[in-house]
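Exercise: predict the structure of this protein bound to magnesium ion.
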Amino acid sequence: MTIKNDTERAHLIEGGKRLAAILRELSAAVAPGVTSEELDDLAERLIRDGGDEPCFLGYTPDGGMRPYPASLCVSINDEVVHGIPNDAVKTLKEGDIVGLDLGLSHEGIIVDSAITVPVGKIDDVSNRLLRATEEALAAGIKAATPGNHVEDISYAIQQVIERAGFTVVKELGGHGVGEHVHEEPFVPNFGHPGRGELLEEGMVLALEPIASAGKAAVRLAPDGYTFRTKDGSRSAHFEHTILLEKTGARIITA
Ligand code: MG
Ligand code: MG
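Solution:
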């Protein structure tokens, strides 16, 4: 969406603040022995307690074969994104990395954010993968200024991930957000500077670098949602909703 007035802007900012607080609470709940379903239940309760709506629950993406059955996506280790927490319930183990991806609708405005969290102590490669993916998100946000183009963001993200020795998952990426869960433009995590749609003040985008520690190829599980790396390597995902303001991006879900 493109923010047109102060009311929309205030709702967007408040929604982002709420989502960020919920993701912090979910991160704090991550521990060995916790199940994906417990995290999903907590996410849904925290959203509804605030009077908001979980917007992944019941959402069918383009080409989806059924509505998504949960509020939260929980993607463990080689699961890249869209792991279903209440379908095949999984228990977190020491040394895992777990991606938590959540969207909520506040006063009709949708915000979307994700983090990847270590479960206890993790190995060095996983640590570097998490750091690089988070740094790639920061670089993408920095490139998201009015007057730049979509692929300036893509290029910035790709550089950070590849310089760290990791690979970019190409099938998935960022998107417009606000009115719907997924809107135009698609924001790939790889590209060429100066290409793609012009970025304009007021645009709301969800930027989400997704990196693999091994090869970038992914496959979709028979559940229709869970993406995994084909070679079994670990994957990380960080996402913020941002608002393009005159002088640069404002992070809505910080
Ligand atoms: Mg998301
Ligand atoms: Mg998203």
